[in-house]
Amino acid sequence: MIGSVLAILSLFSRAMAEARERSFIMIQPDGVQRGLVGKIIERFEAKSFKRVAMKFVWPSEELLKKHYADLSERPFFPGLVKYMSSGPVVPMVWEGLNVVKTGRV
């Protein structure tokens, strides 16, 4: 009996671990300038997501060109790189169930 309960708990915890997602979220220069970093962090924490990494950085154009390389052929690419390098940003990695969907909302 105890063995079967432990087996079920093991399967459940494995399923929950597999269901956990990670998402990259970056607060853009205007969000940092407007003082929204704390409020954004509070929203993710209120949904019980775990902050795995966070850094306050002023990205170089070179770094941004690598980060947004998949958009390099788009007409808005130069403006995007210029805007994102105009001030500090806060890139973060969050972990939790449905964190990708929540981050998009």
Largest sheet: 3 strands, antiparallel
- Going by helix content, strand content and strand pairing, the class is alpha+beta
Number of H- or I-type helical stretches: 6
Beta content: 15-25%
The overall average pLDDT, rounded, is 89
Could you give the order of strands across the largest sheet? 1-3-2
Order of helices and strands: HEHHEHHEH
Q: Unreliable segments (pLDDT under 50, ≥5 consecutive)?
A: none
Number of strands: 3
Give the helix level as a range of percent.
Answer: 40-55%
Q: Give the end-to-end Cα distance, rounded to a whole number of Å.
A: 44 Å
Roughly how many Å is the radius of gyration?
19 Å
Shape: globular
Protein name: nucleoside-diphosphate kinase
EC number: 2.7.4.6
Pfam families: NDK (PF00334)
GO biological process, one term: CTP biosynthetic process
Provide tags for this entry.
105 residues; alpha+beta; 3-stranded antiparallel beta sheet; 3 strands; globular; NDK-like_dom; EC 2.7.4.6; transferase; nucleoside-diphosphate kinase; signal
What would your notes on this structure say?
- This protein is an alpha+beta fold and 105 residues long.
- It is 51% helix and 18% strand.
- The protein has six helices and three strands; from the N terminus they run H-E-H-H-E-H-H-E-H.
- It has a three-stranded antiparallel beta sheet.
- The model has no long low-confidence stretch (mean pLDDT 89).
- InterPro entries: NDK-like_dom, NDK-like_dom_sf, Nucleoside_diP_kinase.
- Belongs to the NDK family.
- One of its GO terms (molecular function) is nucleoside diphosphate kinase activity.
- Keywords: Kinase, Signal, Transferase.
